[in-house]
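Annual report, structural modelling task.

Input specification for the magnesium ion complex:
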Amino acid sequence: MEIIRASDVWYEYVNPDETGEMAVRGVSLSVRRGEWLSIIGHNGSGKSTLVKLLNGLYVPKRGSVTVDGIDTQDEERIWEVRQKVGMIFQNPDNQIVATVVEEDVAFGLENLGVEPAQIQPRVQKALEAVDMTRFATVAPHMLSGGQKQRVAIAGVLAMRPDVMLMDEPTAMLDPSGRREVMDTVERLHKEEGMTVVLITHFMEEALRGDRVIVMEKGKAVMEGKPREVFTQVEELKNIGLDVPPMTELAHRLRADGFPIAGEPMTVKEMVEELCRLKQGI
Amino acid sequence: MPVEARDLTHTYNVDSPFESTALDKVSFSIADGEFVGIIGHTGSGKSTLIQHLNGLLKPTGGTVIVDGLDLMAKETDKKEVRRRIGLVFQYPEYQLFEETVFQDIAFGPKNLGLDKEEIERRVRDACKLVDLDCDQVGEKSPFELSGGQKRRVAIAGVLAMEPGILILDEPTAGLDPYGRDSILNLVRLWHERGKTILMVSHSMDDVARLADRILVMNHGRLEMQGTPDEIFSQEARLRSIGLDVPAVTTLAGELNRLGFDLPPHIHTMEDMERALASALGGRPAAKKTEEATAHA
Ligand SMILES: Nc1ncnc2c1ncn2[C@@H]1O[C@H](COP(=O)(O)OP(=O)(O)OP(=O)(O)O)[C@@H](O)[C@H]1O
Ligand SMILES: Nc1ncnc2c1ncn2[C@@H]1O[C@H](COP(=O)(O)OP(=O)(O)OP(=O)(O)O)[C@@H](O)[C@H]1O
Ligand SMILES: [Mg+2]
Ligand SMILES: [Mg+2]
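The model returned the following structure:
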């Protein structure tokens, strides 16, 4: 079942590019309930603009976006849209407002006018979901970047959105913070059926999802399962993108004349394939 | 230009309930022309550390000596130090403020009192280095650019000062692969001209590929320092302090546990490709290609 639909969406900023090009040019896409869709593409290709169109922060110049059947241009129902679609930005520091973790998570609920008696249990549950319960009463500035980003995720989760839009949520994090946040997203997706739209420049993060869209100059130019998209190594390189490290290695070994079979994309898959090759099977 | 830190200590909010020590007796020295990577978990003190190297933050203990100038000595001309050291902040795009991209990049050179032609030359040169088309975006407002484009403008502004030491705080965070490679490439070129580079990064791959030496920060202390080989052979220790090793290094470890006999210190794609070619080798290339085609 579909939760978000964008039909031939165009968007132009007030001061458009000198090239006269719009930031988003005729994108159509549909996000299924429970799906994890990743969006990759150049800087300036329109990814952030596109996701802001998906939660109604921007309304399209042409075309339309619907969230659970509600048109984002329907001003009377925009709060419903925002409630259904939560957004997490790149920098956790910009999203954390309160001086205590649990207050921060409660903040959005208070704004929504949720009944006070309901706030505490929802906050507890959200903190549990990101494994941050023991930090409930801590000051956010005492947390690591990965932990802060998990608090930001809890803030969005507490509002019980149907969809989580994440705009480069791990760009500032160290390797374990990054893994922490991605494991959290994966668990929410798998266990709670959360719909995820993730913008990332880390190809190995996009690998974890169900589907990938490649943006280029305001258009969606490639689309498919991660495996289908990332095996098009030359095409991706031609538009200045990358592939996950193991895909790159497979590509190089193949060019060196080694018959790498299938499409190993993770370390585990690569180990299996290389063992197979070594034993000459 | 050489850089030396001696017992460098920094405590934020001294004598307040929020007092916290972000740097704790950090000592190291960096030789002229070295490329040094700085890694460490978020909050480990990396940004605090490098802001001391151009005198932006004042240590609460210890000192920094840059090119023979002691930053704590009264007679040292702080302005001169800033001129020699270019610091690209973490998320420098938040500090763009001029009306046009051109003016933003020209801001530093203008402050140096250079003439108009020289400023123009430097701005164009810097634009070229960061792969921005000066004619196309020069007259735009920096606020109309995408995140990655803004970053390039900010870096260009520092390069236009033509500093002897270039310090970059996570210069590729948020950049697309092409932008990342173009920034890393320009840093490498700068280094090849004999300039000293310090680069803070969360990308183990980038540091492994580029740095001559690595400083590892952990909770305000200098936990380890050494060559990429020395540092990345300590996978467990790195993981225990929030870090990691490059993906190919993990792969090498796994393979060796399964009886591959790969050489130690595989940290880059090229290392891995070479090691595997010799471990799996022995079959004629032509035959391999046939097999590969047959498989496809
Ligand atoms: N506030 C704005 N005003 C005018 N133009 C803008 C504005 N924000 C973005 N743009 C332009 O719209 C285009 C798309 O930008 P957008 O931020 O959506 O890209 P992106 O794919 O998210 O890039 P990045 O990877 O750098 O975050 C770019 O050409 C950019 O210059
Ligand atoms: N202005 C400040 N006032 C008080 N504490 C600060 C300030 N700036 C940083 N800190 C604290 O000092 C410690 C080191 O911070 P620093 O920014 O140097 O870390 P970092 O290694 O650069 O982290 P990241 O990888 O997240 O950028 C952290 O605990 C941080 O919370
Ligand atoms: Mg963006
Ligand atoms: Mg920092």
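The mean pLDDT of chain A is 91.
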